[in-house]
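Record 1 of the preview.
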Amino acid sequence: MTVAETFEELQARFNTAASAGLNKIIQLDVTGPEAGQWAVHIANQTCTLIPGGVENPDLTLTIADKDWVAVATGQLDAMNAFLTGKIKATGDMMLAMRIPNLFNLK
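->
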């Protein structure tokens, strides 16, 4: 699975009930051979993907492409990846804690 494919799947995993009341942008800065920026705008219980990212997201996550694919496919626990430094976060840390519920990550 490619990085781009994981973002398409991410929208399908979006949990509308968990997003009630949110109006936030989460950006992923992916490094490595499949590097790129993708942002997800969560508002009105919808999830909109923004390829290329945005200027001022509420939360920015930086992760290597191979680690992102592993998280997105359930092969790597997101919290474990964060605690071991594979995911670096800046911005709204409370929002970061909600990501597994917002996207039904394994």
